[in-house]
Amino acid sequence: MTAEFAPSSAPSLPLWLIRSGETGPVFPEQIGPEARAWAKASGFAARPGQICLLPGADGALLGALYGLGAAPQPGARPARERYPLARAADALPGGNWRLENVPDDLDLTTAALSWLLANYRFDRYKKAEPARAHLVAPAGVDEARVLAMAAGEYLARDLINTPTSDLGPDELEAAARDLTARHGGEITVIAGDELLAQNFPMIHAVGRASAFAPRLIDIRFPGEGPKVTLVGKGVCFDTGGLDIKPPSSMLLMKKDMGGAASVMGLTEMLARLGVTRQISLRVLLPVVENSISANAFRPGDVLTSRKGLTVEVNNTDAEGRLILADALALAEEEAPDFLVSMATLTGAARVALGPDLPPFYCDDDRIAGAIQSAGMRAADPIWRMPFWEPYESQIEPQIADLDNAPSGGFAGSITAALFLRRFTTGAKTYAHFDIYGWQPSAAPGRPKGGTGQAMRALLDALPEILK
């Protein structure tokens, strides 16, 4: 589906945005005494997300009031609900709506985006009720930017929500080719045994047991400027390999390509906004299925990576870092100014921070601060975690350079990040995002299912990162 605003020329109803004060709702002068009396009789207190429909004398709908709660105070904690107008999009009667009485403290970009994200539907397999209420782009909002962010999120959600029967390695490659063609990029794909010939042994090892060839997708855009490389984990399904997952742990493994989906969603945003003409953007997607067959890689195997580092496989279910390592090693050979990896990598990240707050890792304090601040501004929260040097010994086994799954069960997200960092030494700055890519239960603007993460944070932070 397409993210879009209602035409500004179309008839629309007013949605009055109302703050709450010490004595109740703060109404503008344009709200007459009859409407105020109706709102009071209806129990409207301008609580966040509260709606009061306004009837005319003939019973026709004249508009609606929408509560925003009290004005935020300096240093206030983040609101419980991330998207301020998402409830309006879900609850208002059908038709086109325009915003009135917009307070100066409301972030219009997030407000407009929240409506579009609430309008998202995944209806490939089951007819879904279409979005009923549509928003006219508010005056003063950067419409192109909001639409670009919504389009990137729609793309990421669609990819993650699609089951592996319809989005295996072949179909993910097709989606990458479509993205590249739409935005004027160039794409190269290395697949099957050619991965060995071109020195991507760990991508090959992880994916060779599948009926669908493993591959490395390499996308470039013709812009000039700082070198930015995005690497996304594309495990289209993860059985765990010979260290097979229990059935309950496989239920969501269609989302194990969430890193690739988020990288593609971010690329969609950058391309729509013309950023791909201002930077030298490269996108690398190692794409596999981690399956079981006679030629599956085994616990105890030692693999030699593209970088030449040897890796002892102590768990075949820690495969994402293996395929990312070969892709990151390729990326660092060009010494990018900013190198990013995004992956649904560890359950430890979810234990620490939950599904809604992905951790990220970056050694550069200035850039890390820019990313975390941008995440808060863009309603795309993330939290910095440390590359904790004392844990380096945990990823160093006795018979190889690295261990893909240290024993002990502690600090799993950190040790995974440390593992990946070993393959990025040629990059000027590296940041890793351990995302979840899934909304476990529906929330305003965030239906249950696939979700992009860290995309808008990076989009917003990029100008500061590349200073």
Would you spell out the secondary-structure blueprint of this structure?
Blueprint: E1 13-21, E2 24-26, H1 33-41, E3 51-55, E4 61-69, H2 86-91, E5 95-100, H3 108-118, E6 133-135, H4 143-161, H5 169-182, E7 186-191, H6 194-197, H7 201-207, E8 215-220, E9 227-232, E10 234-238, H8 247-250, H9 258-272, E11 280-290, E12 302-304, E13 310-312, H10 320-332, E14 338-343, H11 347-353, E15 359-362, H12 365-377, E16 383-385, E17 402-403, H13 412-421, E18 430-434, E19 438-439, E20 449-450, H14 455-465
Parallel strand pairs: 1-4, 1-5, 5-6, 9-11, 9-14, 10-11, 13-17, 14-18, 15-16
Antiparallel strand pairs: 1-2, 3-4, 7-8, 8-11, 12-13, 15-18, 19-20
Helix pairs in contact: 3-4, 4-9, 7-10, 9-14, 12-14
Which properties best describe this structure?
single chain; 467 residues; alpha/beta; Leucine Aminopeptidase, subunit E, domain 1; Aminopeptidase; 2 domains; nine-stranded mixed beta sheet; six-stranded mixed beta sheet; 14 helices; elongated; Peptidase_M17_C; hydrolase; manganese ion binding; protease
Write a structural description.
The chain is α/β, with parallel strands linked by helices. It has two domains: 129 residues, Leucine Aminopeptidase, subunit E, domain 1, CATH 3.40.220; 319 residues, Zn peptidases (Aminopeptidase). 31% of the residues lie in helices and 21% in strands. The protein contains 14 helices and 20 strands. Strands 7, 8, 9, 10, 11, 14, 15, 16 and 18 form a nine-stranded mixed β-sheet that branches. Helix 7 runs antiparallel to helix 10 and helix 12 packs across helix 14.
